[in-house]
């Protein structure tokens, strides 16, 4: 391990590895297929970067986000390491130049998307490369049960027979036990080498705050917090609107979403990272690959689409180990919106095929042509030309990408050297689309059950889990999250809204009255907490606070499976 530590010291300046990094590196360098689960900020990249440097050959890194590729390649360049990346917007000759450098051994790290992995051009060069390690980043994307399923991940194992002695390292920050099992199966692991850090974040306080006035609640939270903050919302237009409102209140805020031009996104990220703006209002497009350890507050203004998504976004707070807060502002409207998104995310298969056909016509692409060609086009103009509703159309494009037919990237600066004329108004942000296969007839488009029916079923389960988490009346927030990710025996955090004692506005007289009523209600038979809250003649929130306090501080009150009881033997 002295070799590994020397590489760490030489290129990154660290004297010691973080927990599990050393064990993962040792496993990979011994030739074992390895699955590593490490929380956001846990240092996943170091595990494969140090491993690759200790071996001869090119490290192939498969990752789903272009922004993440660029960020990691930039970081490798900063520490003097040779790395390159491929994405759909590159001209063919540039791709060939970069691939040729890898074949010649003049690059150490090659980053690609899973869709790029199977283009004829890439496969022809890959066959000539000497690989030392295959890395699958964001490996939860391989699973139909994951929160960002990408069918192209299912084909990664196809390249393994060409490199029989090359180990594979799969990395993720969020995976349930079911997803962990599927990752290993789909990647054809030869070994059961699994390294998992606990998902517990003892410095991070999770809270859900019910409110009908989110604007005022958000202002209070931001004014009470010193340090950097991220405010997540699920609507792009609202990011700018909320940022402007915060600015009007004297708070230094900016906004971010996937539809911004590439240069503007990079500028905003850099400014926020350098403390030029304290608050970033953003969609979930913000945060991936950004290594900022001192975020003190993450606020979800809208309920997230899944607990996996929430855990990653909330986990961007307090990566320096200093206490931080992750707070969700929740109202009944959020529940209705979450249920409504199930319909919006899955337009009919007939509509999806129609969007594919219109896309080919809009780009003037003949049937049988277009493989590996990239086009810039105006999404707004496209919808207007064919009278398409924007939201279902966007989700149809995403489903076509999940099926592997296209890749698309929002907010990329148009390239004047693309093979088709750019059809984008100057005031509009383009979407760049690449056809991964020749254009087909609409009736030839196959939409697998794994992409549509099974994924819709899983999304329904994820939405139900979010609603249960938000509406949970008593259980520790940290315990709820850890149980979801396969850690059923974690301790109470002692800091969340369910672990704290009753609020100061409850008088001692009120508390004793509620306690006495609870004792009468449960002295003979356990009662459901929901039933108690509906029938106790007190303020609901104060009753709930009193129940939380009693089950934490008075051993005579016991909570099991949602039922409160009283242990008379200890009275």
Strand fraction: 15-25%
Determine the number of helices (DSSP H or I, runs of at least 4 residues): 20
- Ends apart, CA distance between termini: 59 Å
What is the helix content? 25-40%
Shape: globular
Q: What is the overall pLDDT average?
A: 86
Largest sheet: 7 strands, parallel
Total beta-strand segments: 19
Q: What strand line-up does the widest sheet have?
A: 3-4-2-5-6-1-7
Short structural summary:
The protein is of the alpha/beta class. The chain contains 20 helices and 19 strands. It is 40% helix and 15% strand.
Give a verbal description of the structure.
With 571 residues, the chain is α/β, with parallel strands linked by helices. 40% of the residues lie in helices and 15% in strands. The strands form 4 sheets. It has a 7-stranded parallel sheet with strand order 3-4-2-5-6-1-7, sandwiched between helices. Strands 8-13-12-9-11-10 form a 6-stranded parallel sheet, sandwiched between helices. α2 runs parallel beside α3 (44-53), α12 runs antiparallel to α16 and α13 (349-362) packs across α15 (390-402). The protein is globular and about 80 Å long. 40% of the residues are buried.
Fill in the keyword field for this structure.
7-stranded parallel β-sheet; alpha/beta; 571 residues; globular; 6-stranded parallel β-sheet; 40% helix; 20 helices; single chain; 19 strands
């Amino acid at each position: 391990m002295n070799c590994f530590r020397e590489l760490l010291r030489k290129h990154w300046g660290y004297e010691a590895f973080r927990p599990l990094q050393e064990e993962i590196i040792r496993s990979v360098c011994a030739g074992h297929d390895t699955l590593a689960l490490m929380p956001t900020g846990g240092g996943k990249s170091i595990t494969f970067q140090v491993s690759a440097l200790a071996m001869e050959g090119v490290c192939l890194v498969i990752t789903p986000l272009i922004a993440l590729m660029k960020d990691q390649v930039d970081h490798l360049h900063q520490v003097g390491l040779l790395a390159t990346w491929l994405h759909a917007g590159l001209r063919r000759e540039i791709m060939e130049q970069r691939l040729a450098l890898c074949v010649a051994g003049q690059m150490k790290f090659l980053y690609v998307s899973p869709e790029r992995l199977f283009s004829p051009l890439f496969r022809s060069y890959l066959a000539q490369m000497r690989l030392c390690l295959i890395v699958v980043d964001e490996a939860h994307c391989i699973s139909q049960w994951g929160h960002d399923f990408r069918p192209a991940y299912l084909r990664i194992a196809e390249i393994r027979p060409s490199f029989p002695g090359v180990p594979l390292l799969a990395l993720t920050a969020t995976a349930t036990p079911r997803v962990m099992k599927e990752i290993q199966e789909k990647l054809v692991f030869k070994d059961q080498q699994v390294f998992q850090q606990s998902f517990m974040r003892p410095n991070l306080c999770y809270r859900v705050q019910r409110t009908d006035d989110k604007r005022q609640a958000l202002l209070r939270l931001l004014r009470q917090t010193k340090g950097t903050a991220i405010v997540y919302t699920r609507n792009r237009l609202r990011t700018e609107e909320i940022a402007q409102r915060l600015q009007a209140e004297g708070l230094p805020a900016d906004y971010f979403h996937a539809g911004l031009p590439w240069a503007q996104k990079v500028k905003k990220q850099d400014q926020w990272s350098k403390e030029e703006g304290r608050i970033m209002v953003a969609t979930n497009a913000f945060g991936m690959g950004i290594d900022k350890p001192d975020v003190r507050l993450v606020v979800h203004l809208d309920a997230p689409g899944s607990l996996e998504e929430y855990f990653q976004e909330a986990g961007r707070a307090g990566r320096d180990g200093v206490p931080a807060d992750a707070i969700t502002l929740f109202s009944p409207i959020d529940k209705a919106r979450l249920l409504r998104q199930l319909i919006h995310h899955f337009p009919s298969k007939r509509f999806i095929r129609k969007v594919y056909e219109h896309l080919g016509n809009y780009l003037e692409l003949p049937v049988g042509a277009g493989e590996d060609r990239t086009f810039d086009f105006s999404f707004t103009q496209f919808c207007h030309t064919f009278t398409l509703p924007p939201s279902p159309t966007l989700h149809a494009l995403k489903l076509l990408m999940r099926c592997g037919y296209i890749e698309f990237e929002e907010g990329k600066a148009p390239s004047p050297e693309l093979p088709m004329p750019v059809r984008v108004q100057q005031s509009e942000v383009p979407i760049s689309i690449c056809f991964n296969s020749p254009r087909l007839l609409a009736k030839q488009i196959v939409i697998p059950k794994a992409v549509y029916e099974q994924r819709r079923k899983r999304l329904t389960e994820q939405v139900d889990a979010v609603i249960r988490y938000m509406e949970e009346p008593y259980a520790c927030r940290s315990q709820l999250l850890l149980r979801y990710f396969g850690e059923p025996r974690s301790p109470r955090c002692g800091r969340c809204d369910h672990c704290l004692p009753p609020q100061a506005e409850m008088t001692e007289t009120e508390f004793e009255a509620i306690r006495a009523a609870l004792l009468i209600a449960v002295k003979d038979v356990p009662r459901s907490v929901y039933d108690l809250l509906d029938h106790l003649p007190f303020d609901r929130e104060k009753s709930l606070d009193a129940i939380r306090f009693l089950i934490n501080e008075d051993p005579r009150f016991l909570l099991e499976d949602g039922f409160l009881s009283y242990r008379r033997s200890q009275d």
